[in-house]
Specification:
Distance between the termini: 71 Å
Strand order of the largest sheet: 6-5-4-3-2-1-11-10-9-8-7
Number of strands: 11
Order of helices and strands: HEEEEEEHHHEEHEEEH
Strand content: 35-45%
């Protein structure tokens, strides 16, 4: 009898946790949708490494129109870069004026690496909803919804922008860990934070990564996005 009662209690707790996770996931996805359904919004994405240094692209300032253009501005090695993307097409402006992603990638090196990153770039609302579906178990504390990310999500984040070099094995990760935290106000997502760490091995190179990325939403429904004619021409 006692065994039956204990098993029943375990089942109730498990069902309660599943329901809580489903509720938390729904809160995040609904809050992200609430922003994404607006005509436009802006954001700032900042990345900090474990030693306090900023990410390779500095702070990314972004703007998005519903069903329209995504606009980014950041710097690479002190060089300001502007990016316009719509659907599968993208273009950027640095020193050479506006060029398509394909034109930029031909230069190889850092330029090609940045293009690989941009081709995989997700707007904050898409990324937030995607991450919410890859959380192992949610907790709600201090006004935020948080949880550890599954192995697939952490690997994807650590390898973002990496590529397999000819004649070498595909990049891999070890000791990978990650977590995400979401902040919601008045039913809309206002900020989320991603922490990932681990070792990335690409050929003979080994990188120990430990970074925190913070995305802050702003000017929801009031963002102004004016795109130069040169940029528009590259997206047609």
């Amino acid at each position: 009898m006692k065994r039956i009662i204990v098993l029943s209690l375990i089942g109730l707790v498990a069902n309660s946790l599943c329901a809580a996770d489903a509720s938390s996931k729904e809160k995040v996805t609904t809050a992200a949708t609430a922003v994404g359904e607006k005509a436009n919004y802006s954001w700032a994405t900042s990345t900090v490494e474990a030693d306090g240094s900023p990410g390779r692209l500095g702070t990314i300032q972004g703007k998005a129109e519903k069903g329209g253009v995504t606009w980014l501005s950041f710097s690479v090695g002190g060089l300001p870069v502007e990016v316009a993307m719509k659907g599968e097409k993208g273009a950027a402006k640095a020193m050479e004026g506006w060029q398509t992603f394909d034109e930029i990638a031909q230069a190889g090196g850092t330029a090609a690496a940045v293009v690989r990153y941009l081709r995989n770039y997700k707007t904050p609302m898409t990324e937030a909803a995607n991450l919410a579906g890859k959380v192992k178990e949610f907790t709600e504390t201090d006004g935020a919804i948080a949880g550890e990310l599954n192995d697939e999500a952490v690997k994807e984040l650590l390898l973002l922008g990496s590529r397999q070099r000819e004649g070498q094995p595909a990049p891999k990760t070890t000791d990978a860990k990650g977590a995400v935290k979401f902040w919601i106000k008045a039913g809309a997502l206002t900020k989320f934070e991603i922490k990932v760490s681990g070792k990335v091995t690409a050929g003979e190179r080994e990188l120990n990564l430990n970074r925190t990325t913070t995305v802050e939403l702003r000017d929801v429904g009031t963002t102004k996005l004016e795109m130069p004619d040169e940029a528009k021409a590259k997206l047609t």
